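P.,

For your records, the input lines for the assembly:
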Amino acid sequence: MKTAFVTDLGSEQNITTFFLVHEKEIRNTREGKPYLRLELGDRSGTIEARMWDQFEAAAKDVNRDDFVKVHARVEIYRNKPQLSLQQLRRAKPEEVDLADFLPHTSADVEKLYAQLSESAGSIANPWLKKLVNGIISDPGIAARYKRAPAAKVMHHAYLGGLLEHAVGLCDLAKRVAAHYPELDLDLLLAAAILHDVGKLDELCYDRAIGYTTEGQLLGHIVMELETITKAIDAIEGFPANLKTVVQHLLISHHGQYEFGSPKLPMIREAMVFHYLDDLDSKLAAVRAALALDSGEEEWSAYSGALGRKFLRLDEFLKSPSAKAEGNVPNPKLFP
Amino acid sequence: MKTAFVTDLGSEQNITTFFLVHEKEIRNTREGKPYLRLELGDRSGTIEARMWDQFEAAAKDVNRDDFVKVHARVEIYRNKPQLSLQQLRRAKPEEVDLADFLPHTSADVEKLYAQLSESAGSIANPWLKKLVNGIISDPGIAARYKRAPAAKVMHHAYLGGLLEHAVGLCDLAKRVAAHYPELDLDLLLAAAILHDVGKLDELCYDRAIGYTTEGQLLGHIVMELETITKAIDAIEGFPANLKTVVQHLLISHHGQYEFGSPKLPMIREAMVFHYLDDLDSKLAAVRAALALDSGEEEWSAYSGALGRKFLRLDEFLKSPSAKAEGNVPNPKLFP
Amino acid sequence: MKTAFVTDLGSEQNITTFFLVHEKEIRNTREGKPYLRLELGDRSGTIEARMWDQFEAAAKDVNRDDFVKVHARVEIYRNKPQLSLQQLRRAKPEEVDLADFLPHTSADVEKLYAQLSESAGSIANPWLKKLVNGIISDPGIAARYKRAPAAKVMHHAYLGGLLEHAVGLCDLAKRVAAHYPELDLDLLLAAAILHDVGKLDELCYDRAIGYTTEGQLLGHIVMELETITKAIDAIEGFPANLKTVVQHLLISHHGQYEFGSPKLPMIREAMVFHYLDDLDSKLAAVRAALALDSGEEEWSAYSGALGRKFLRLDEFLKSPSAKAEGNVPNPKLFP
Amino acid sequence: MKTAFVTDLGSEQNITTFFLVHEKEIRNTREGKPYLRLELGDRSGTIEARMWDQFEAAAKDVNRDDFVKVHARVEIYRNKPQLSLQQLRRAKPEEVDLADFLPHTSADVEKLYAQLSESAGSIANPWLKKLVNGIISDPGIAARYKRAPAAKVMHHAYLGGLLEHAVGLCDLAKRVAAHYPELDLDLLLAAAILHDVGKLDELCYDRAIGYTTEGQLLGHIVMELETITKAIDAIEGFPANLKTVVQHLLISHHGQYEFGSPKLPMIREAMVFHYLDDLDSKLAAVRAALALDSGEEEWSAYSGALGRKFLRLDEFLKSPSAKAEGNVPNPKLFP
Amino acid sequence: MKTAFVTDLGSEQNITTFFLVHEKEIRNTREGKPYLRLELGDRSGTIEARMWDQFEAAAKDVNRDDFVKVHARVEIYRNKPQLSLQQLRRAKPEEVDLADFLPHTSADVEKLYAQLSESAGSIANPWLKKLVNGIISDPGIAARYKRAPAAKVMHHAYLGGLLEHAVGLCDLAKRVAAHYPELDLDLLLAAAILHDVGKLDELCYDRAIGYTTEGQLLGHIVMELETITKAIDAIEGFPANLKTVVQHLLISHHGQYEFGSPKLPMIREAMVFHYLDDLDSKLAAVRAALALDSGEEEWSAYSGALGRKFLRLDEFLKSPSAKAEGNVPNPKLFP
Amino acid sequence: MKTAFVTDLGSEQNITTFFLVHEKEIRNTREGKPYLRLELGDRSGTIEARMWDQFEAAAKDVNRDDFVKVHARVEIYRNKPQLSLQQLRRAKPEEVDLADFLPHTSADVEKLYAQLSESAGSIANPWLKKLVNGIISDPGIAARYKRAPAAKVMHHAYLGGLLEHAVGLCDLAKRVAAHYPELDLDLLLAAAILHDVGKLDELCYDRAIGYTTEGQLLGHIVMELETITKAIDAIEGFPANLKTVVQHLLISHHGQYEFGSPKLPMIREAMVFHYLDDLDSKLAAVRAALALDSGEEEWSAYSGALGRKFLRLDEFLKSPSAKAEGNVPNPKLFP
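Structure tokens returned:
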């Protein structure tokens, strides 16, 4: 239904499409004439919009966090596109597809979930298998597991990102466990599937990605601890010490106190899982940093999450050696 | 039943009493003659013991962590008392009172528990009151709440110490809440009574104070979170947000990530409770350091928990001023 | 004398009142016509002002940090009020009440000081009582003690804030000392009254709150150490060791090296006083953060001093449970 | 050739001179009329420039990082000067003197280099002397050693700054070695001359000071390690252990791991050299901070490198004592 | 040739075998009679030895770090075995097999080296392949690569440990690169094979594992940087930027400044390699900690390298649940 | 008067000399016979002593910290010399020279003090000169300034060490100020002479070097601040701002909060002085570490103060290159 995205808008174009309202104000021009100023957005970005005439009725009906339908003309002001609104109204529920307003994974979510279920099914330990299967086959959990992002900004910060991360960790765990025979793959798989289940409620991701109040007060580690503990207790005969081991895997997976783990990993698999989780998250953050246009040919944008920027290796290896040129000043200036 | 404690033993005395076996070995003298060497202890300390003759039968029957009955003579060796054992056998259960073997509070535990219950009863919020009363009137919990120490070494490290700490915090909370009217006393009292309930299982304190395996893997914050969450869920109608607030109080009470709190206090009462808990613990640690004989008149023993030693204020204020004397060397040497 | 405060200004209103000049510049319009631009303020906030005509004479006479009398019209520009000045002149001293230009405590300063004196009078130790009374009855000190803020931004950052903090600490100390009989209340009261006396000179608070050059070079701990040491030395017979104890209380009250205490608290009362001072300051910072409008219903503004934001507990407990709603996307979007 | 510098431009002046292009864009006025906007600069600063008419041809030929010749008029817009361009073309190589576009030392570079060579010549140890002389007499190195800055922003951040720093360190090392007879001056001099040679390639300083890609990936310590190691290996018979000592001096000169030294100084001269290098750099940073106009009479601008601001001692000692005045509020306000 | 190892010695046994001398002193008995005291060792541990008679000749000829042949009787003193020497002489070179005196890998070193070569051979990039092959086929390097441990105490601290670690990393890199198609496997393999080559000279491992003086002054990162840089420069046409990339991989592989990396990983493969290297080292440290007898059934010895102890998962899962038992005191004491 | 020092004692020697009593106990032999055990010491070290017969009278009269005269025989027990006392009595004051019992500088203290006075005299600023001269010509201060050590263990830990350090800093300051003309030498000299005056009372050094109680509670920075402030206030007309500058120099000279400076250096001379003080102290600590016999030829003992050991440069440069030999195992073993 949505026909034009923010990043595609060209100068002097007339458009009719849908947006989410991020901000709304009534302003006055220097001459004292009021106008409506909106910030509109979709999953590709945001744009300023102004409505100069007959905006009063629409302005009453439309509020922040509403979806709207607009008819507008794209103009360029201070080198940036801007919308001059001619018509504006609230959208009807059936006109809007949420997927147009939040970034989402490019993978097929149902296929990913099938892979997750397959990994769960491959767990040999009957107690762990029952636990993991119970969680991911819960319809309330499954629906959100397919939508949730893995974070607000750090890594996999898009709808479906959490699932992508979990499926990736299952595969990675299998490969690493094949290398170290001393590792218990069942525990690694259970950790991969369960370790971020608390994010389903820590984050909210209806229209934009943010934190719930409960999420800020408790954090996903504590939230999933409650969920998983109850699931374990609902399984009759689940061994008490295995329960402790699962709980330890969950609470220690951030690896360090200062990252919110109340215990350091003290089980071999807990330590290894922390490494894999950290590696997969960091690598996703690097990928995201490299995907942004940093304005520098050989370097990514600076990643606040990683405290550095990353080399675009291909560009660097292709470029003639900086060293060969040296810094010899004169010949270089006016070739 | 126990008649002589380690700290009371005098030279050349003959004793008949009970001890806990801390260590046991068979050693050889230089001449190759075997003898039995034990380290025996009670709540007041430990002492070396040797049995030179006819120890074989007793040695077979007696092991580390057993209680024993001995008949022995106290001798002084290298300035320290030592036992020369004449008779030795395992004690019978009914001969032993555990209280003789672990340090315990000097307060009356039943009175303390009555005070705790009174504080619980003074909570106005009906949900919190129901929760707290439910916990402390659970017989399994109450029995252990009356025995548990608050820590292995840091503070209140004796039987009944946890209860003493909780009762003290209730009183302190009342005083501080009377000063700051913005504070919700109910939350502070609930925190005071519940915040260390996980220690009932984190620590073991049958014969000596130590950590359980589960305690090391999860810690008391995570352990009590499970206990309290279940108690809340068993109360029909308990408000969801109040549950989140109680959980936040529990998980944030260490105040900093590096002390094992997965969240910083973000509720006013959580921040204040952390201060009170920390103050009461530290002050108990100072009290313990000052109680030890440090060999220095004006200074306590060095407290590892606090990273410093503390001044014995009374001694210092009584002493003639160091400054008045100065460091003037000659006249001071041979007055 | 001051009739209109910045936060009360309404659109299209004509006002005649007094302000403090925070900034002054002559600017040109795009057409090259010069005009006078001022930033004016009072204790409630600041506002931009422009004078388009006949500003030359006034501009010569008026400078930054002057008080001015203005006749002006309030206009709205870019959604914010702004003053269009019609008349402008320097204010005469007798026209200005400083209290209109700096935020100040809502309490009655004289009553607070009487409470402080009463606490001082309750000190039992004759030497400490003489010392503390001497300090707070010094007219030069008393005048400033009634005006000084406790900080520039961290806590109690308003005129009279320091006094409010000290009086509060006296009361808190009495309550806590009643709980811990081992504590010497006299020392806690002396610390409460004297520990920030150096701020009288570390800060300047004539028109705005800032730091003096001396304050930046020495800090209030060092500054008050000099004041109190001299006051002690002026008391004949003051015990040398008690002097050392008072000095230690002063220099250790920040509790940690990185907060500018050259010694850690090594006296029981010094440690406790540090806790109380820290608690009272932090709680005041939380109070200030909650008092600001953060634009979020359930959360305070982010407090830089505390490194977090705080929950508005009442709002949260009143709100329907976030958890009950869950993150179920579709039904929520178009109810 | 360059006749007018940015900091000298006065209102309504007509100028013909050369600049470096820092930024270039085509923008539209509100009415949709395009114009060329440039940011132009020289060693004294930067200025905005606009060309309203007939800019198309020039705009095609001119790019960021080009030198240009302009004919323009200086106008004042929002209190800041701005250029209205009438003519614009790329400069020819022979028209431009790079020294006009980058800040540079006020000292005579050739004289400084002669001093450096003299210090090198004063080294007694024949191996070290041969090594150091070989490096600084290499024409490729010498040309760049005379141009390189010592840093991008921290200290000596101007052309010739590195040389100034090295020459200063040689002199300082001689003075300090004269004080501590246990120190080997030869090692200190070798370190002073060689320790930042890697900066010749870590930084680029053709038109502005920045980091090369190689510089970011390796850092000057690693880069100079390669240069100096090869120079040593080219000297037949150079003692193996002396080589290790020189390498250690280079890699440890930042003094701490977190500043990029892979080893702490473990040789007396390495530790001393680290102190001298650090002192000279920090003092240069203080000098730079004091040279900026901070808008405060008694204090320098805040130095990010040093985490504080510095007192202008002369101003402070000249000023009437702040303390004498005190904070007595009333008399001060309207003198 | 060696027939009896320290850990196998039983009481009252007569032995004839070889040891390494760790310490040697002449002591006097209380009666003033001199005797020879040695500390002797092999790869399994150390033991005290005394020679009471006719030791003078042997004592002259035998020194610390010598191999000796002894004829002795095992006695038990203070519960520990001790040797009473009857005959003692220096061993002849051909009598000693070094492998008896240093712990070594249980794997077949030649097979491991063949695997390393195979991984080197699988590198696709011709320049990297040539570089890596050149290094590992150098006979001087190969001989030591087959002997060197990976560390003194942290991980793989036995002969052949470095090779085991490198071969393991090659396999792990292949698995992980198969999971993340964005990664360049060639760079990971080159890093795996080359990243610790500096340890061949940083450590000495002739008789015991220690650090060379050069190793302490430079560290293996700097040492291998020199080796690999020279090997690269010897390959004509090796691309300059690829050289920089290889150097960056080497210097950044410790991942953080405080672990001696002068640069953080800024290339994707450098970051990933750091994770793999760290994981493999830490896991080896856990393996070593679990292999030691800690005297606790469920916990490993405390690992200083990891700052914690690790759970013996199998023991824990097998044991009856601690929780089920609880801490109920009475019934547990006398079962 | 003292004829034999601990380090000079040879086996079976009979001696008559003086010692300081470090410890005293009455012990029993295994057979129950009591004897007197002392630890005796002088400036060169300590030794155990036993008196087997007729010790009762002497034991009553002699206590810890007394000087004693002994007649004894040196015996060797467990390879260490030990005294068998035949006669023992307290020494008379006139028999003892304190210099025999504490390590002291090898320099001539009076000459050093004359140099210090000369530096004080060279101060040009009349106020600073008056201040500094007043301090060092105070007889009470001078007497202790000539005796005090600079620290208990860190650096210059011997009688006269503080003076040596101060005189060294004066000379170093002159050299460095000659290099940086922007520095005010007067301030540096005043700092050099005054910055550790508080150590005269922070430490006690009558018989052994330790801390006074006052020193532990206040520290030398706070203690000297009081001394110097009073000396300034006693000088009529001393400029208020110069007083602030001197106070800032004193309190900031440790350079960082965590080393007990309540303010960072914010005056150029304060920053430089901190560097010089730190350098001189650290270099003295290196000197002390190198002076100890570490049992390693090329390395000093590990210095706890510096967190590392230091290379003996001369030994290392003299030794045949370790690298040349390499780690080639076989030929090295049996040369």
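Two observations worth noting. Residues 322-335 of chain E have pLDDT under 50 and may be disordered. The CA atoms of residues 30 and 175 of chain E lie 66 Å apart.

Regards
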